[in-house]
Amino acid sequence: MAAYARVALSVPLRDALTYSVPKHLQDALVPGCRVQVPLGRRSMTGVVVGLDDDTEVDAKKLKSVLARLETPALPPALLELTRCMAEEYACPWGVALDAAWPASLKRRSAKTVAGIAFAREEGELESEALLLEDKAPKRARVLRAVLELGSPAPVQLVMRRTGVSKAPLATLVKHGLLQWARIDQEDELLEQSRHERAERHELVPAQRAAVDRVKEAIAAGRHETFVLHGATGSGKTEVYLRVLEEVRKLGRSAIILVPEISLTPQTVGRFLSRFPEVAVLHSGLTDAERARQWLRLARSQAHVVVGARSALFAPVRNLGLIVVDEEHESSFKQQQAPRYHARESAVMRGSIENAPVVLGSATPSVEAWARAKSGRYTLLEMPKRVGGGELPRVVLVDMRHEKPIKGNPPLMSKQLTNLIEERLKVREQVMLFLNRRGFAPVLYCSACGETIKCKDCDAPMAWHSARGRLACHHCMADMRRPELCPTCKASPPVALGSGTERVEDWVRRRFPEAVVARMDSDTMLKRESYEKVLSAVRCGDVDILVGTQMIAKGLDFPNVTLVGVVSADTGLFQPDFRAAERTFQTLSQVAGRAGRGKLKGLVVFQTLCAQSDPVMRAAQLDYEGFITSELDARRTLSYPPFGRLVRIVVEARQLAAAAKRAREIADNLRSAAAEFSVLGPAAAPLSRVRSRFRVHVLVKAHTVPGFAAVRRLLDGLEGTGDRTLRVLVDVDPVSLM
Ligand code: ADP
Ligand code: ZN
Q1: Residue among 475, 522, 482 nearest 502 (CA)
Q2: How many Å lie between the centroid of ligand 1 and the Cα of residue 200?
Q3: Domain limits, the chain
Q4: Is 375 exposed, middle or buried (0-12, 13-18, 19+ CB in 10 A)?
Q5: CA 56 vs CA 16, 19, 52, 60, 83: distances in Å
């Protein structure tokens, strides 16, 4: 009968607080359960992280736990994991714990969820959406989203898709266009793809060797981290599936993490066809569905989960394996508190639960590679494609040598155009990749030289010709394209640079007979559209697939024999020390989509920087060459993985306030600087977002004690501030923007 409970709260406090447990709750509380407690004059929810018979705190001063909430308790391993994560990522334990439950399980339980439905005919709503375009773009967006999703649509989903608050929805209801509705959780169930087949192949020797090494660790119940460095098409997924069989044979459970973007029906289907009980967690699910999947895992009705980043918190017991596929992906880092990296946290969880962890990639992150080289992780190599398929050949096309159009390099080179034409003739498929959506990233006035910027962000608005709108990719604001430059009113602004829409437009003009599909977050609002396009490509109904990152990852289409990268340089000049690594990884991934079947693949990189290291090495498929020189560069500048980086961002409505607070933080760190160095404060490259100025401070810790010292100094800083000013602490940031 524990009389005291230690409760972690999501407030900027390092330690859990002790409360007394009233008699009637003594049986009800267990570690990992959620409770209601008083804090100051407020009442808050928190998580019980420990129960004690005694306390050193003066018992008379203690307040009591008010109630236990219905939310299922977390297993002990997750308490430990979140504690380590809080420590590692400098955030309150309560904040890390909060991430472990799906949102809807934290609310009062309900059989239905809030929905919003049509109150008029669909056609009427469509014309209404057009009318609202300019007057009320947010409302127009909501209408379009509900039309897309179908009636009734979950309110949550509509808000997430459109990035708006509830207000525009309420207005639409008030005007009689939409109406509130309740949606049954059961109806919400999304159909999982069962079309994909994953035949069980005879393993090739490299796969066999990899599987055997991991199996050995599984059998021994030993934590060991493996870096599975396998070329694109080397059969990494088959390795995961085999290892998974072993885990299940032993009655243990497994977590497979994949980047959100490659949680395609294709990938998910491959797991489902071999393990029908798999739980799937991704952002396309509604909250209710996510909760259902989570509960299936918690109740041991499912033992394997395939999911994005947050599936790391799956409440499985008796964990036998964690796989992180495409571990180099920056989307494994969460951008809100807790700002954890799922790869690093997976290794933490594996070590807590004595489970092996497999980090798979064709282009391992510098972090994983450095540790594999130093012997901390075990390196498993699969350099060849399975089935004797050859890796594609890459041709670099130097766009500086192309005949300019109006003084600018053309969108497509002669060579790529000819190659596309050839493929169309023999009915092979083509993918055209450009890591930028919209028609053009910037509208520019040739008279005064100004670009059209978002009024709330320090960033140009992109031109989306399909929607006929300018959109800010940072705050989702949109507006109509002005006839004349808003600054000088002298001439109409022109589109500068290109995005996927322009590529699609070009293809349709140049090859009117070809069937073209575009895949980016604008066209793929619905998960079903994703599935539709993918299966059209698969059946050969699409000749040319144009897309962003969405087509770069994980897709396996044997009839694609030509991949064109419209511009290999889009990410090269980001003010970020990871720009080279990211460019190399993306180019290698895209190149890997070509020639995955019996037909040989050809890849074209169009570039203005043919001499840049990442572009050149990616073209030579030379991972080791790239990573070796990249590691040298990082070592010289003590960037990760040599030393750790912490970024502190202060956001405020007033620039002066942000700068002042950032200066205080930097001075405080500097006064203690020992084995770390402090850079800044300086304006963040993205200096204003959603009307908030952003000032940042960077800390480089050169040693482990240095990092520990920084960590201590930053204690309790994350999440401080008020409505006008916010302090964010980002340990191991993946973006310095
Ligand atoms: P990766 O994830 O490394 O890019 P995949 O796992 O997608 O590679 O495998 C590429 C293709 O090879 C898939 O179509 C898969 O079904 C097939 N494959 C995998 N292993 C084998 C094998 N041992 N023999 C024949 N085909 C295989
Ligand atoms: Zn904006």
Answers
A1: 522
A2: 10
A3: 4-77, 112-187, 206-385, 389-437+498-632, 440-497, 644-731
A4: exposed
A5: 14, 12, 10, 11, 21
Q: Is the Cβ–Cβ distance between 703 and 709 less than 8 Å?
A: no
Q: Is the per-residue pLDDT at 449 higher than 70?
A: yes
Task: Give the mean pLDDT of 221-227.
Answer: 95
Mean pLDDT of 448-454: 90
Is residue 113 within 8 A of residue 182, CB to CB? The reply is yes
Q: Which two tokens stand for residue 273?
A: 């066809």
| Percent of the chain residues topping a pLDDT of 90 | 55
User: How confident is the model at residue 190, as a pLDDT?
Assistant: 43
Round to whole Å and give the CA distance between 709 and 432: 48
HEC string for 83-115: HHHHHHCCCCHHHHHHCCCCHHHHCCCCCEEEE
pLDDT digits (tens, 9 = 90+) for 59-93: 778 899 998 988 889 999 999 999 999 999 999 99
Candidates 3.40.50.2000, 3.40.50.300, 4.10.520.10, 3.30.2290.10; CATH matching 206-385: 3.40.50.300
Pocket test for ligand 1, best of 200, 201, 593 (most atoms within 8 A of CB): 201
R_g over Cα of the chain: 27
Pocket probe mutation, ligand 1, options 556, 596, 599, max atoms within 8 Å of Cβ: 556
* Distance, C-alpha 582 to centroid of its chain: 14
Name the CATH superfamily housing domain 644-731: Ribosomal protein S10 (3.30.70.600)
Of all ligands present, the nearest one to the C-alpha of 478 is: 2
Element (H, E) at 693: strand 692-701
Please say if the pLDDT value at position 367 is more than 90: yes
* 441 within 8 A of 497, measured Cβ to Cβ: yes
* Same fold: 206-385 with 389-437+498-632: yes
Architecture of domain 389-437+498-632: 3-Layer(aba) Sandwich (3.40)
When pLDDT is averaged across residues 649-658 and rounded to a whole number, the result is: 95
Quote the CA–CA distance of 414 and 403 in Å, as a whole number: 9
Ligand 1 centroid – CA 235 distance (Å): 4
- Show the ligand 1 pocket: residues with CB < 6 angstroms: 201-204, 207, 230, 232-238, 386-387, 556
What is the sign, positive or negative, of the torsion defined by CA atoms of 461, 467, 469, 471?
negative
Chain-centre distance for alpha carbon 554: 15
Q: Are 322 and 354 in contact, with CB atoms under 8 Å apart? A: no
Rounded Cα distance between 683 and 693, Å, is 8
Q: By three-state DSSP, how is residue 227 classified?
A: strand
- Tell me which ligand sits closest to the C-alpha of residue 455: 2
CA distances from 714 to 9, 88, 99, 736 (A): 18, 11, 21, 18
**Per-residue pLDDT at 112:** 67
Closest C-alpha to 633, from 650, 612, 648: 612
Could you give the angle at the alpha carbon of 178 between the alpha carbons of 173 and 181, nearest 5°?
Answer: 95
Q: Say if residues 684 and 735 touch (Cβ distance below 8 Å).
A: no
Determine the Cα angle at 435 with ends 429 and 440, to 5°: 105
Copy the structure tokens of residue 233.
Answer: 């098409």
268 Cβ contact partners less than 8 Å away, ≥ 6 residues apart: 192, 193, 196, 278, 280, 306
User: pLDDT (tens digit, 9 = 90+) per residue, 669-697?
Assistant: 998 877 889 998 999 999 999 999 999 99
pLDDT of residue 186: 46
Residues 6+ apart with CB under 8 A from 250: 218, 219, 320
Taking CA atoms, 579 is separated from 330, 407, 695, 736, in Å, by 12, 28, 21, 10
CATH topology classification for 4-77: GIY-YIG endonuclease (3.40.1440)
Which atom of ligand 1 is least distant from the CA of 592? 4
